[in-house]
Design brief:
Number of helices: 10
Distance between the termini: 36 Å
Radius of gyration: 21 Å
Number of strands: 15
Strand order of the largest sheet: 2-3-1-6-11-7
Strand content: 15-25%
């Protein structure tokens, strides 16, 4: 048997025994033997994307980020802040620990996520929020993606546990958006039709959101009454997707939305692309694209289609941009930041 494999097996047993007493050993044991990228990609890592309806209140954002760094073993590898949308996305990464029967028993993401949500709910009131992006709540979406050798089933299990823990703690409404549930389709399509979580849980008109106090659909976790200050949350586990935004140098929102609709799967366009046309600042609009299978229909194909359609509308299209890194880049950044934390 390969020596590195023996060391890794020993590390797994030791870290499980030490888990309750001192989880600080986990990073050391899991990633020091060996340290090459191929071996890291064979480890169990989980990514969580957390979307918060705020980007202008720097005090609130500082509080949220401090909460996310309290544990020291969850790393914020990226944050994408959009002033026009008044929205920020955080990308968190940490490891998963299994027992001897391969059941998940621990991840630092659990506590980090709770701490960030607590800070967000304390600092942000949804009733005072204003931004161009449709929104569901103070914390809009919590999406778990698999990294390295983590499976979608593991990410799904973790999402359900996280929803139960934080739903009970904060008394907020959580709806699952797993790959094989009806909510998954609603989540990927509802924003584009400007009806959030249809049927009529949350209606939007331009930039303004109106939240009903009583939900017509029972949430998976939490009470049926909606907190106007907090809103509701979508939480789930999905295969890796990419967010790609294409700026349009025009304020003609109707033309932008026609192009967005036509390029999307709902409009008969690219099968695994969902889009949303929005105002973005005073002088431009933007087509936000969710690439559900980026290896099948990627940013280049979407950019080309939008440029062709926008030309028919007389619109000038700028080069699009991603709001996050690729999975491989996220792993690399995670390892670099973890190393800096350990050496610091």
């Amino acid at each position: 048997m390969d020596m590195n494999l023996k060391i890794n097996e020993l590390a797994i047993w030791v870290l499980t025994l030490l888990l309750v007493k001192n989880v600080k050993w986990i990073i050391f044991l899991s990633f020091c033997f060996p340290k090459d990228m191929k071996s890291i990609k064979q480890s169990m890592l989980l990514c969580c994307k957390l979307y918060v309806s705020e980007s202008r209140n720097h005090g609130a954002l500082d509080s949220i980020e401090r909460a996310g760094r309290l544990d020291g073993e969850t790393v914020i590898v990226n944050k994408f802040q959009d002033q026009a949308y008044n929205r920020i996305g955080y990308t968190l990464v940490s490891y998963i620990v299994h027992d001897s029967t391969r059941n998940i028993i621990y991840s630092p993401l659990q506590q980090s996520l709770q701490s960030m949500l607590e800070a967000a709910y304390e600092a942000i009131n949804l009733e005072l929020h204003c931004g161009a992006h449709p929104r569901l709540g103070v914390v809009d979406d919590i999406v778990f993606h698999l990294l390295a050798q983590a499976s979608l089933e593991e990410a799904t299990w973790f999402a359900r546990k996280a929803a139960a823990d934080i739903g009970n703690k904060f008394q907020c409404q959580y709806f699952y958006m797993m790959q094989h549930t009806p909510w998954a389709n609603l989540w990927t399509s509802s924003r584009g039709s400007l009806v959030i979580i249809a049927p009529t849980l949350w209606a939007t008109n331009g930039a303004d959101g109106i939240c009903q106090e009583v939900l017509p659909e029972k949430p998976d976790v939490g009470p049926n009454m909606v907190s106007q200050a907090r809103g509701i949350v979508m939480i789930g586990a999905l295969p890796w997707d990419s967010m790609y935004n294409i700026p349009i140098a025009s304020t003609d929102i109707s033309a932008t939305r026609r192009s967005a609709w036509t390029v999307s799967a709902r409009g008969g366009g690219l099968p695994t692309v969902q889009t949303l046309g929005l105002f973005h600042g005073k002088d431009s609009t933007e087509i936000g694209c969710q690439l559900l299978e980026p290896n099948r229909f990627g940013a280049g194909q979407v950019q080309y289609q939008v440029e062709m359609l926008a030309a028919q509308e007389g619109l000038d299209v700028e080069k699009g941009y991603f709001t996050d890194f690729s999975p491989d880049m996220i792993i690399e950044k995670y390892l670099k930041l973890i190393s800096e934390l350990q050496n610091g």
